[in-house]
UniProtKB/TrEMBL annotation:
This is Dihydropteridine reductase. Coiled coil: none annotated. The lineage of its organism: Bacteria, Bacillati, Bacillota, Bacilli, Bacillales. It comes from Lederbergia ruris.
Length: 238
């Protein structure tokens, strides 16, 4: 396993609680849309065993052509040791990155794609939308639905409806409206549904989609293949 030590190039305050850390892309390092990476802070490998409290599995919110690796995360007042340290870092500080993998690349199967996310989960979908804008081949259209109770919606420069690109974006700030919209989207019985958020959020969305007749193979999760049965293999209680 190769560990890359790289520097923070820029820090963007997206909202009062959300920051994007843009780190220099090591030469030759590349990834697919929908990828995640392990981000580690200095000292994580100082002992005999890695200090796991200084390592986090994070989505990459950029594409390789942007030449920076973007990590977008919410840092609340009360937070973990990892995020408390991350909050103190500045441009020029070093971080380690390793193990890049994509669970949710954009499927090009001549279908409608629906991106369902909660809060900063939208960061996982930013590269998918950018990739679609660059090359719309074999994707009918994309619709993004995001719920964020803070009402500080992210990436509104990109997640803005554009009829010429066959892209629509929707933000809601409460669960009732969100799940009503999910039910409406599930009227498309042939669509592909991508979901990013907490495990609870994933399970709630899957339950709603399955109740509307959406099949497990139409549901894409940002989870390793071995974890998928835990979320997608269950019988609907009818």
């Amino acid at each position: 396993m190769q560990i890359y030590w790289t520097k923070i190039n820029k820090i963007i305050d997206e909202t009062p609680e959300v920051k994007t850390y843009l780190v220099d892309r090591p030469e030759g390092l590349t990834w697919e849309e929908g990828a995640h990476i392990h981000l580690a802070l200095e000292g994580f490998n100082a002992g005999d065993k890695p200090n796991r409290s200084l390592i986090r599995h994070m989505s990459i919110s950029t594409l390789p052509y942007e030449n920076l690796i973007g990590i977008t995360t919410r840092i609340r007042e009360q937070c973990s040791e990892f995020k408390a340290i991350l909050r103190t870092l500045e441009v020029g500080n070093k971080v380690a990155i390793f193990k890049i993998h994509s669970n949710v690349p954009l499927k090009r199967e001549d279908k409608n794609v629906y991106l369902l996310s909660s809060g900063v989960g939208l960061a996982t979908f930013r590269p998918l939308v950018l990739d679609y804008f660059e090359r719309a081949d074999n994707v009918n259209q994309i619709h993004s639905l995001n719920i964020d109770s803070s009402k500080n919606f992210l990436f509104t420069d990109i997640f803005s409806s554009a009829s010429d690109k066959k892209f629509t974006s929707q933000f809601v700030d409460n669960r009732k409206d969100y799940y009503e919209e999910v039910k409406k989207l599930a009227a498309d019985k042939d669509g592909l549904f991508y979901i990013v958020g907490s495990d609870e959020f994933l399970k709630q969305n899957i339950e709603v989609l399955r109740e509307q007749g959406i099949k497990p193979e139409q549901i894409m999760l940002d989870k390793h293949e071995r974890q998928l049965p835990e979320f997608l293999s269950f019988d609907l209680s009818i």
